[in-house]
Every structure is written in structure tokens, then in C-alpha cells.
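= Paired protein data =
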Amino acid sequence: DKMIVVGNLNNDGTRNIVSNYGTPVDYWEIGTKVKAGGVIQTGTSQAAAVRTGKEALTLINKDVKIKKIK
């Protein structure tokens, strides 16, 4: 089993002050001011959800490249 550690970026691409950081972080994703269920939220949970969506799309369509997904 593999665990993926996701860090939370601000919308300008800088690390959010409450995010995970350091060598354990595998991916950095926008997790600040994410609209979820009609509510704007911030946190590593939102960043992890963004990454999970990108990973799911690559499993569905092997031709999808992560860099193309926004």
C-alpha cells in the first residue's frame, strides 16, 4: 500500500501556512478557497480532494496528462 501526502498551496502557488511541508509531501495542489458543496473551504483536505480527482481521471483515461488538468 502507498500513501500519498498532499500539501496545500495558496491560489498564487505559495505554500499555505497551515499546510504539510517537507520531504514527506509527494504533491502540491491548490487547497485554498476551494468551493465545495456551495461553501468556500481551505485546507489540506481540499488539496487532497483535488489530487484525488486528478488521479481518478488518469485511471479512467490513460491519455490524460496531469499537467493538462486544471
